[in-house]
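For reproducibility, we list the full input for the uridine-diphosphate-N-acetylglucosamine complex.
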Amino acid sequence: MKKKKIAIVVGVRPHFVKLAAIYPYLVKEHQVKIIHTGQHFDNEMSKVFFDQLSIPDPDFRLNMGSGIHTEQVGRGILDIGYVLNDCRPDCVIVFGDANSSLAGAVAAAKLGLSIAHIEAGARNHDMKLPEEVNRLIIDSVSTFFFCPTEAAGISLGHRGVTQNLFVTGDLLLDSVKKNIETARRKSNILEELGLRSKDYYVLTIHRADNTIEPFAINLIIDTLLETGENVVFPVHPRTRKFLQQTGLEQKILSSSRFILTSPVSYFDILALIENSKLVISDSNGIQREAYFLRRPCVILRDSTEFPETVISGGALMCNLQKDQFQRSLRAENFLSAVFDETRFGDGNSAIKISSILREKL
Ligand code: UD1
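The corresponding predicted structure, in tokenized form, follows.
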């Protein structure tokens, strides 16, 4: 049988992790082309993931870069469109909810190509967030819907999706299961940073709404300084710029409790999370990784696409009021947590998705 052509659009850090999880299965049966939009372009945000997770070099490298969202998405649609029009794949895979995913889905839809959305159906019902807008549009033009959780499947059902909807589980769980042993063996990040297991918090902040004005980060930093805990803070480039512009970087650097680092590799973030006392993050990827590694997590948001982590007591949402944030850090909040990863599948989502695509394409 002639191999089908699949194009996979990736652009941001979490896409590379998901790509690594599914690529080996897809490439066994299909002709696979990787399109890297260039949304994340720094080595630490992109190349290190390709190297560490043995992902082949992208077949197409575009230059979507940064800019206001309309510009980013517009440029993405245009450039991905040219590539897809030339190679006319049987299916275009997009992951999650980033601007790269939206651009890939819209370009494919306008060319009449089949679209497989991995992480379909995740919602937080807040249309102020760019990712929610992206998710809605992507799901409205997709052909195949691969849902990470039952709840995501149900939310799509409510929106009238009845065909080609599959609850296959979360590729991030596949990836954590596959890589955690290697991360334990290979990562030296604790030694490098002079940390002891269960003696520090991990903090990550990257969302636009937390980096528009200094109130939120200032509050987070002040509160964490008062706790006297060690805090490891791998900083996203957007957040780094913001900390520098607002003078907050200096404040953090003057504390011996805070360790500010560049974005860390995949193995290092797994090791940091697994050995942490508590994870504090506005990323839904980190939130899930903490859950899979059985670490408590304070979510720096007031809504989440993955309520499973909260319902089970493993994570707590926190809108940024000082007293609420202080309270959310207490260890007793998480004493009855049940880290039930099976809510996100069995770690074999990649196999399931690729066998469905084999059957359907
Ligand atoms: C994007 C996704 C978000 C995802 C996140 C993963 C959208 C709307 N958001 O957010 O859903 O959770 O990726 O990390 O697509 N920058 C650099 N170097 C890089 C990458 C970014 O300097 O390698 C800077 C950009 O110049 C920009 C800022 O960081 O000013 C934000 O980057 P952008 O790609 O727009 O969005 P993210 O915040 O990374």
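DSSP finds 16 helices and 13 strands in the chain. The radius of gyration is 20 Å. Both points were considered when choosing residues for closer inspection.
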